[in-house]
Amino acid sequence: GMTEVVEKVRANAKLHNRDPRFLMSIRIVIADTEEAAWQRADELRDTIAGNLGDLDVNTAAAKASGFRRTEEIAKRGDRLEKCFWNGINQLRGGQSNSGALVGTAEQLSDALMDYYDAGVSAFILRGFDPVDDVIAIGRDLIPLLRAKVAARDEENATSA
């Protein structure tokens, strides 16, 4: 998972006296209830599936090792670990990098904190709806995430 990736990169970077930061870009499917969020995810998959006929096979992606991992994950089902949804990757046979987190603001902030704890210090959070998702992410998710990060940093500072 993310923890192993961060540790591996940090170990190699240390040899060159570097201390890299990690940024993660992920799509967000947010709703007021868990049920509504997963329903939105299913609807999004249906919409995207309806548009897939027009897409060419992504041959470059098919050769990349990261996409091979995505394909392996795609075979395991569409709901993975905490809030993680793989529905779009499944549609594309692993030829896309479109994992998403699905849930309420509270669930999403908890899931993102797992990545923060793994060493990710910056996030790009993208929704599927260009207006409503931006509003919900900014209004509901980001303040929660900031509060949890501040509390975790304080916790770590006092225990250090």
Protein architecture, described:
By secondary structure, the chain is an alpha/beta fold. It has one domain (21-52, 61-153). The protein is 58% helix and 15% strand. It is built from seven helices and five strands. Strands 2-3-4-1-5 form a five-stranded mixed sheet, with helices on both faces. A hairpin with a 3-residue loop joins strand 2 and strand 3. Helix 6 packs across helix 7 (132-159). It is globular and about 50 Å long. The chain starts with a helix and ends with a helix. The model has no long low-confidence stretch (mean pLDDT 84).
Helix content: 55-70%
Strand order of the largest sheet: 2-3-4-1-5
Mean pLDDT: 84
Total helical elements: 7
In short:
This protein has 160 residues and is an alpha/beta fold. The protein has helices spanning 2-14, 34-51, 59-63, 65-74, 87-91, 105-118, 132-159, and strands at residues 22-30, 79-80, 84-85, 100-103, 120-126. It has one domain (21-52, 61-153).
List the keywords.
160 residues, alpha/beta, five-stranded mixed beta sheet
How is the secondary structure organized here?
Layout: H1 2-14, E1 22-30, H2 34-51, H3 59-63, H4 65-74, E2 79-80, E3 84-85, H5 87-91, E4 100-103, H6 105-118, E5 120-126, H7 132-159
Parallel strand pairs: 1-4, 1-5
Antiparallel strand pairs: 2-3, 3-4
Helix pairs in contact: 6-7
